[in-house]
């Protein structure tokens, strides 16, 4: 890398992973909040390839990628990244963080997530390495995906403090988008208009 390249190389790099089946309005708000509050140079939006932790099969990656491209199109510094859908085997976040470390030498990485995922972090693959690779940044989440209220509400990963993102608690979730679509109800309050159109045009989430 030349000295000039080093001056302009991204120094604050975010990773926001998810099934994004489909991406909804709160995903977009969370990405915008992360970019602004963490002053990110780039935020990689990474749809999961093989979600080893989910029971249900995900919608084909090509559709989830296309919907992410629509949902995050207007978000400056967000970059939809297909890498996990192209990787064989389970999608492990630590693998993606290590790839980003190689691609952005010297950058500080930020791993962005909702609180439900933060509470489950200890079960992730190589969980102990996550907090070494990235600063873990968490947005609170309201029902129905909120974490158990009896649990410690200041989550930590084996002693690693998690950084809070300021985001008004939102009950939006992709399950409701899929359920409403299957019932023939409108989802325009839950997803961007472009995503609603894509769902309709490609007959996604419709009842059999
Ligand atoms: N309403 C929300 N508030 C805060 N974080 C959220 C919210 N919805 C999703 N997230 C976060 O976005 C990331 C990706 O979530 P995901 O794609 O699984 O969406 P979801 O709405 O949780 O989907 P599903 O209902 O299918 O479980 C996760 O880190 C999740 O915690
Ligand atoms: O690396 C892991 O073991 C791991 C376990 C659970 C979830 N994740 C990642 O967390 C992100 C959000 O997951 P989800 O279930 O909310 O879509 C997504 O990128 C998943 O691949 C990663």
From TrEMBL:
<keyword id="KW-0808">Transferase</keyword>
<dbReference type="GO" id="GO:0004515">
    <property type="term" value="F:nicotinate-nucleotide adenylyltransferase activity"/>
</dbReference>
<feature type="domain" description="Cytidyltransferase-like">
    <location>
        <begin position="15"/>
        <end position="160"/>
    </location>
</feature>
<dbReference type="GO" id="GO:0009435">
    <property type="term" value="P:NAD+ biosynthetic process"/>
</dbReference>
<comment type="function">
    <text>Catalyzes the reversible adenylation of nicotinate mononucleotide (NaMN) to nicotinic acid adenine dinucleotide (NaAD).</text>
</comment>
<dbReference type="InterPro" id="IPR004821">
    <property type="entry name" value="Cyt_trans-like"/>
</dbReference>
<dbReference type="GO" id="GO:0005524">
    <property type="term" value="F:ATP binding"/>
</dbReference>
<keyword id="KW-0547">Nucleotide-binding</keyword>
<keyword id="KW-0520">NAD</keyword>
<keyword id="KW-0067">ATP-binding</keyword>
<keyword id="KW-0548">Nucleotidyltransferase</keyword>
<dbReference type="InterPro" id="IPR005248">
    <property type="entry name" value="NadD/NMNAT"/>
</dbReference>
<comment type="similarity">
    <text>Belongs to the NadD family.</text>
</comment>
<protein>
    <recommendedName>
        <fullName>Probable nicotinate-nucleotide adenylyltransferase</fullName>
        <ecNumber>2.7.7.18</ecNumber>
    </recommendedName>
</protein>
<dbReference type="InterPro" id="IPR014729">
    <property type="entry name" value="Rossmann-like_a/b/a_fold"/>
</dbReference>
<keyword id="KW-0662">Pyridine nucleotide biosynthesis</keyword>
<comment type="pathway">
    <text>Cofactor biosynthesis; NAD(+) biosynthesis; deamido-NAD(+) from nicotinate D-ribonucleotide: step 1/1.</text>
</comment>
<dbReference type="Pfam" id="PF01467">
    <property type="entry name" value="CTP_transf_like"/>
</dbReference>
């Amino acid at each position: 890398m030349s000295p000039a390249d080093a001056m302009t190389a991204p120094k604050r790099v975010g990773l926001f992973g998810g099934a994004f089946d489909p991406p909804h309005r709160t995903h977009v708000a969370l990405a915008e909040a992360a970019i602004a509050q963490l002053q990110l140079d780039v935020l990689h939006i990474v749809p999961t390839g093989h979600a080893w932790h989910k029971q249900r099969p995900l919608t084909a990656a090509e559709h989830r990628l296309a919907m992410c491209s629509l949902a995050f199109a207007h978000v400056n510094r967000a970059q939809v990244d297909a890498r996990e859908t192209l990787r064989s085997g389970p999608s492990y976040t630590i693998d993606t963080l290590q790839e980003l470390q190689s691609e952005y030498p010297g950058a500080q990485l930020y791993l962005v997530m909702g609180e439900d995922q933060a509470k489950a972090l200890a079960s992730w693959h190589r969980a102990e390495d996550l907090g070494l690779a990235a600063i873990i940044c968490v947005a609170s989440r309201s029902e129905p995906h909120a974490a158990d209220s009896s649990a410690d509400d200041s989550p930590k990963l084996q002693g690693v403090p998690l950084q809070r993102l300021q985001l008004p608690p939102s009950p939006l979730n992709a399950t409701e988008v899929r359920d409403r679509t299957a019932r023939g109800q409108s989802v325009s309050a839950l997803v961007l208009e472009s995503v609603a159109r894509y769902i309709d045009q490609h007959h996604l989430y419709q009842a059999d």
